[in-house]
Amino acid sequence: MIFWFEYGSTYTYLTVARIDALAASADVVVDWRPFLLGPLLKDRGMAQGPFLGNPPKLDYMWRDLSRRAQAYGLPYRKPSVYPPNTLLTARIGTLAAMQGWCDAFTREVFRLHWTEDIAIGTDDNLRRALTTLGRNPEEVMVAAQSDANKQLLRAATDAAEAMGLFGSPSFTIGDELFWGDDRLEDALAFAQSPGRPAAGQA
Amino acid sequence: MIFWFEYGSTYTYLTVARIDALAASADVVVDWRPFLLGPLLKDRGMAQGPFLGNPPKLDYMWRDLSRRAQAYGLPYRKPSVYPPNTLLTARIGTLAAMQGWCDAFTREVFRLHWTEDIAIGTDDNLRRALTTLGRNPEEVMVAAQSDANKQLLRAATDAAEAMGLFGSPSFTIGDELFWGDDRLEDALAFAQSPGRPAAGQA
Question: Model ipTM?
Answer without folding.
Answer: 0.87
